[in-house]
Amino acid sequence: IYATLVVSTLRSGKYADRMESYEKDEIGLISDELNQLAENIQEQVFSMQRLADEKSVLAQTAHSAAVMEERQRLARDLHDVVSQQLFALSMMSSAALRVFDLDSDKAREQLNEISEIAAKAQGEMRALLLHLRPVQLSNDRLCDGIIKLIQELKAKTNIEFHASIDEVENLSKAAEEHLFRIVQEALSNVLRHADAGKIRVTLTEEEDYIYLFIADNGKGFNPHKERITSYGLKTMRERCEEVGGIFKIRSKENEGTYIDIKIPAKGRG
Questions:
Q1: Facing residues of 264 across strands?
Q2: Which partner for 269 in 60, 77, 231, 264 could form a disulfide, CB atoms 3.0-4.6 Å apart?
């Protein structure tokens, strides 16, 4: 039973736990094997964090290329989404003007559709502008970078934010940058897809782990359908796992979306 509990603990990400060693019987051998497994997993997590740090250093030299790639992606999004919405607004407003004196009810219906499309286009633009921020945190700490993002969105949207952002000390630079990009991507998804009125963001460090929680009260989605594999969610999960973290997402249609992330503190696990 105790061995089962240890395995369950390892699966939850608590790699520092060890099983008490007994005499050199079968139970003792199992204890030794489980402890060795935990140690191996812990070392792998440390190795992943070191590799992520090395990758972060290499990424600095490719910063210009990354910025160019991001701008190209934004240009495609502007063309594919926003420009189409603006074209639709132009066509529908012209049609509404033509029928305004002849059929006021039809004109009112078209004006309502114009208002909805304009709101969606505004959300898309805000999400795209969010991605124009630096690819790296530069000299900001993680907590400062997240606070700046939230303050920016508070000033530009009607979304109500509830944030609790602590300073986290035991986090590698690579992990900081990955978490920042995860927050950026998550907020962008909310702006573009969720139709949310409230967002909660929590960053805290407890014992040997850093916890990030992002939730919204938007329209949600079914995680078992194709949208769970969308580029944004897939990238967030990969960024989290690259620094030894655990990524969990919960969502239900009309009941919002909840993202839970747990990352081992630097040099721990």
A1: 209
A2: 264
Coil, strand, or helix at residue 46?
A: helix
Q: Which residue type sits at 230?
A: S
| CA 88/CA 85 separation, integer angstroms | 5
Please give the structure tokens belonging to residue 115: 């208002």
Neighbouring residues of 3: CB distance < 8 A, sequence distance ≥ 6: 19, 30, 31, 34
Using the structure block, give the residue that is written with the tokens 């721990």: 268
**pLDDT, tens digit, 9 for 90 and up, residues 96-141:** 777 877 888 887 888 888 887 777 777 666 666 665 555 556 678 8
CA–CA distance, 132 with 146 (Å, rounded to integer): 15
The side-by-side arrangement of strands in the sheet containing 160-165 is 160-165, 198-206, 209-216, 257-264, 246-251
Who wins on pLDDT, 7 or 250?
250
Confidence of residue 246 (pLDDT cuts 50, 70, 90): very high
